[in-house]
Amino acid sequence: MIKDNETIEEFLAQHAADVEDAVRKAAAQEIMPRWRRLADHEVDRKSGPHDLVTDADRQAELYLTEALSALLPGSVVVGEEAVHANPASYEGIRGEAPVWIIDPVDGTRQFVHGDTGFCTLVALALGGVVHASWTFAPVHEELATAVRGQGAFLDGVRLHAGSPDPGSDLRVATSHPDFTTDDQKRSLLGLWTDGVAPRSCGSAGLEYLAVARGESDATAFCWEAAWDHAAGLLLVEEAGGTHLTRAGEPFRITGGNDLPFTAARDEATARRVTGLLSAGV
Predict the structure, then answer these.
(1) pLDDT greater than 50 at residue 207
(2) Which of 23, 43, 127, 137 is packed most tightly, with the most Cβ within 10 A?
């Protein structure tokens, strides 16, 4: 726990490995045994036909909520499924207590279809600032971690986002059309231009990891749900990248952002993408 005279950095120095252990166990016990074995009654719809939830989402979030709350007494948990059941619980992100931000299965559609493109996302934030993150792709046994000011790592190897190759098309993962408004679609149309290769995103967490490891150049996302973004944004930052909203400001997990926004390998790429997004309006 964070004691009266202990900082969040000191807490992480002692317990980051415990968080990693909890994330791995949640996946091993609640997610992977259900992958490619889901029965019809274990899959439900939330807001629409493409917004799915499974027993793996629910049970993994419950596991992580219990484990992480025990690690850090006095902390609160903002998890995707708990917020769906009680939207008021999202306000924990704006409170004064340390907050665990959890997406138990990021990429639920892929998970339901038996694809490999899903992950578990956990971030620890305080006062609207993300201090640490864990991105775990259980099929591939890949774990990406970041602690503010200490770098980003994939399975212990430091990540460097780098910069796009000069003259090459920018590889940009964008919000899926099924989840965008007409205004957002018009903004994203700015990316359909020479020198840019946009495509619809899969798991947001894995798209952020692709930027952090230099396999993709940028994202262009149109929604604010912190469980999709908190872990990945810190990962990109600590790998040397940056993130900007269309207003040219860093994305805030507490909300009120000018959307769409981007996370990119470097500042020049971020400004190029946000400029294109503004041009599309």
Answers:
(1) yes
(2) 23
